[in-house]
Amino acid sequence: MSSGNPFSIGFRAARANLLPGLIIQGMMIGLVLGYYFWPPSRGCFEYLAAAKGRWGYGFSFCSSVVAGAVLPIVFKIAVLEKGRVTRGDLPDFLFLAAFWGMEGMIVDGLYRFQGVMFGSHVDLPTVVKKVCVDMFLYNPLFAAPYTVAWYEVKNGGYRLSTIGRVFTGKFYREQAIPALCATWAVWLPVVSAVYALPPLLQIPLFALALTFWVLMLAYITARHRAPEPVPAPLPQGVGE
User: Fold this and answer.
1) Alpha-carbon torsion angle 212, 92, 139, 131, nearest 10
2) Where are the domains of the chain?
3) Which of 76, 148, 164, 216 has its CA 20 to 30 Å from the CA of residue 68?
4) What is the DSSP string of 161-213?
């Protein structure tokens, strides 16, 4: 990442992703409104809630792998590589599957923890508390540095020397803070929509938001002829 004010870099990244961010925000808010005010949608929501209740962390893992690994790799092969599988596709898939699968379970754990701390009621005070913890504690202290560290190690060829750069104040300032600013700008309304639903629907909505975001960024990346459609968000959307 280029040098400069990390906050400026982060908000420039958010501005670059403004259109897809607005579309995802609109979709998520629409889904929440549909759940509460359009009865025909209840059947689909109940199916997702039942699947999450039955499979637990397994649902979180699998849905995140599909959204964060399967879809971008399929898009990469089909669009960027014109149907030809390359040697780098399998390592890329394994990396993305490991990262997003674990991330999905971590986010599931965060939602469960917040349910214990603040309750499972869907009212304004509870939603505000959960959003604040998510956006202003979980993301700065863990999600942002965790995500950019993974990608730093990957981009460094998985060399041990790369890991030493991750655990420094300079790395946090130059890499994590810009990602964090992009997260706040794009994903705050999405996170609010997630917490506005009952607990069993929060991970399904997160996975759906991640799916839309990954496909949209893959499309944008393809238009700009980038080498690979790496999804920018963290669960709760840390953007690169």
Assistant:
1) 20
2) 6-32+55-223
3) 164
4) HHHHHHSSHHHIIIIIHHHHHHHHHHHHHHHHHHHTS-HHHHHHHHHHHHHHH
In this predicted model, what pLDDT tens digit does every residue of 45-70 receive, in sequence order?
Answer: 999 999 999 999 999 999 999 988 89
Q: Residue holding tokens 């390592």?
A: 91
Q: Measure Cα distances from 125 to 29, 167, 190 in Å.
A: 18, 36, 17
- Among the listed residues 211, 226, 163, the one whose alpha carbon sits nearest the alpha carbon of residue 20: 211
Q: How far apart are the first and last CA of the chain?
A: 9
Please write the tens of the pLDDT for every residue from 162-211: 777 777 888 888 888 887 887 787 788 999 999 999 999 999 999 888 88
Tokens of 238: 């840390």
Measured between alpha carbons, how far is 38 from 129 in angstroms, rounded to an integer?
27
What pTM was estimated for this model as a whole?
A: 0.83
Q: 43-59: buried (b, 16+ CB within 10 Å) or exposed (e) per residue?
A: eebeebbebbeeeeeeb
Q: Which residue has the higher pLDDT, 240 or 25?
A: 25
d(CA 161, CA 165): 7
Mapped onto helix, strand or coil, the DSSP state of residue 239 is coil
Contact 14, 237 (CB under 8 A): no
Six-digit token pair at 211?
């799916």
